[in-house]
Specification:
The structure is a single chain. The protein has one domain: Glycerol-3-phosphate (1)-acyltransferase, CATH 3.40.1130. It is built from 16 helices and eight strands. Helix content is 55%, strand content 11%. It is globular, with a radius of gyration of 22 Å. α7 links the parallel β3 and β4. With 393 residues, it is α/β, with parallel strands linked by helices. An eight-stranded mixed beta sheet has the order 4-3-5-2-6-7-1-8. α2 packs parallel to α7, α4 crosses α6 and α4 packs across α13. It binds ligand LV5NTVZW and (2R)-2-hydroxy-3-(phosphonooxy)propyl hexadecanoate. (2R)-2-hydroxy-3-(phosphonooxy)propyl hexadecanoate binds next to α2, α4 and α14. Its EC number is 2.3.1.51. This is 1-acyl-sn-glycerol-3-phosphate acyltransferase delta. It comes from Sinocyclocheilus rhinocerous.
Length: 393
């Protein structure tokens, strides 16, 4: 193991990276807040400024993945589609299996120049996460409580707001609605069976409402759906802590560009279209399992230096004052100040650990698992399924 590799596993390095992320993030959140008065005067300018500010936060996680851990990202896609990436608005449909799929997605956004403006249909709980969740308010991210009756109005309104967005954007949808676990998969396949839908081996049954409403409301704004299937080589299940420790992974992403005007307008036809898409995605995963690659031509979209430069800027700006502060503290000789600072640092570390926890599948929600029972009752598709679930738990 080289000296650099050993350095990457050191707690001190992790603390410095997290400190830079947190402090720069809060400064940027504050700057975003300062753009509030601009919104009623020049909305498009406010949006453009927020895209740049947002970029300065999310690109730090991209730099961590690309430059710190050295993770490689390979794209399988048709050359004629490749030319259009980053030059049009698109809806991205992505499988949801990995703890760092959001960082990998962001890395592809960065490579095609749409990182600052990237959008997602995200669960509401993420909006409370400091730095990233707060940044998302200003980027007009669409939040949902995953309760359609409550979401319908807000999701439609937020989507409509994006119609005059001044930058090209990719709108990410994880139609499975939650990350893959064996337990959720089992339950979701029981739902599929009752609905007479073919079983999926590598995906949960997609929730169709978010997709249909997105297609409906962004028709005319978005030109294509990018059907994207992600995998990591050697059956790796990468984690954010692994990335922080400098572990190198290799992501493979298969993308098919599907023109939006080929997707049915009628809601039930659109839902059927999405179910068929997931059956095809399942076949691609099977192909990957068998051959170790996806179909299609391989390209490696080139690295850009901006994420690294942005990160170095914040490191230079924030690490020196930290060192001076710590030095002054030690020299002050006051036990009280030292204890207070230690408690403060500990609290910040716990906070960061909580944020990292948000990415961990083990600490994930029960959506599509325990909550499933009530949903099934509500939709009255399985009269006895609730009882059988109770038995299983
Ligand atoms: C060239 C490169 C290309 C690509 C690069 C890749 C990516 C880069 C792109 C962009 C990057 C941008 C950002 C990335 C950064 C961060 C992202 C991070 C994460 C955020 C992601 C999340 O938070 S995911 C969770 C939230 N999102 C969603 O849930 C979306 C999907 N959900 C829906 O669409 C839902 O319909 C809903 C949320 C709108 C409403 O939820 P609700 O639960 O009310 O759903 P439904 O009404 O649909 O559910 C009831 C129906 O479901 C059936 N049911 C019941 N139980 C189950 C079950 N266990 N499994 C499946 N189905 C079930 C039930 O029977 C009902 O059926 P109906 O027939 O009545 O519909
Ligand atoms: C640079 C060092 C950075 C260290 C700080 C850590 C930053 C933490 C960022 C938290 C951002 C969280 C984004 C997570 C996205 C995600 O994957 O959410 C899961 C949901 O889709 C589904 O949730 P679930 O139903 O629980 O599976």
């Amino acid at each position: 193991m080289g000296i650099l590799q050993v350095l990457k596993t050191q707690l001190l390095c992790h603390l410095i990276i997290c400190y830079v992320f947190l402090v720069s993030g809060l400064i940027i959140n504050l700057l975003q807040l300062c753009t509030l008065p601009l919104w009623p005067i020049n909305k498009q300018l406010a949006r453009k400024i927020n895209c740049r500010l947002g970029y300065s936060i999310s690109s730090q996680l991209v730099a961590l993945l690309e430059w710190w851990s050295g993770t490689e990202c390979t794209l399988y896609t048709a050359p004629e589609s490749y030319k259009l990436y980053g030059k049009e608005n698109a809806i991205v449909v992505l499988n949801h299996n990995f703890e760092i799929d959001f960082m990998t997605g962001w890395t592809f956004c960065e490579r095609f120049g749409v990182l600052g403006s990237s959008k997602v249909l995200a669960k509401k709980d993420l909006s409370y996460v400091p730095v990233i969740g707060w940044m998302w308010y200003f980027l007009e991210i669409v939040f949902c409580k995953r309760k359609w009756e409550e979401d319908r109005k807000t999701v439609v309104q937020s989507l409509r707001n994006l119609r005059d967005y001044p930058e090209n954007f990719w709108f990410l949808l994880h139609c499975e609605g939650t990350r893959f676990t064996e337990k959720k998969h089992k339950i979701s396949m029981e739902v599929a069976e009752k609905k007479g839908l073919p079983k999926l081996k590598y995906h949960l049954l997609p929730r169709t409402k978010g997709f249909c409403v997105t297609v409906q409301n962004l028709r005319g704004t978005v030109t294509a759906v990018y059907d994207s299937t992600l995998n990591f080589r050697n059956n790796e299940m990468p984690t954010l802590l692994g990335v922080l420790n400098g572990k190198k992974y290799h992501a493979d992403l298969y993308v098919r560009r599907i023109p939006l005007d080929t997707i049915p307008e009628d809601e039930s036809e659109c839902a059927a279209w999405l179910h068929k898409l997931y059956q095809e995605k399942d076949e691609f995963q099977e192909h990957y399992r068998q051959t170790g690659r996806f179909p299609g031509a391989i390209t490696s979209p080139p690295h850009r230096p901006w994420a690294l430069l942005n990160w170095l800027f914040w490191v230079c700006l924030l690490v020196y004052p930290l060192c001076m502060l710590l030095l002054q503290l030690l020299l002050s000789g006051s036990t009280f100040t030292v204890v207070c600072t230690s408690v403060f640092c500990l609290a910040v570390s716990v906070g960061i650990r909580w944020m990292i926890g948000q990415t961990e599948i083990d600490k994930g929600s029960n959506y599509g698992r325990d909550a499933n029972e009530q949903q099934l009752k509500d939709h009255a598709i399985l009269p006895n399924f609730g009882a059988s679930l109770k038995k299983n738990h």
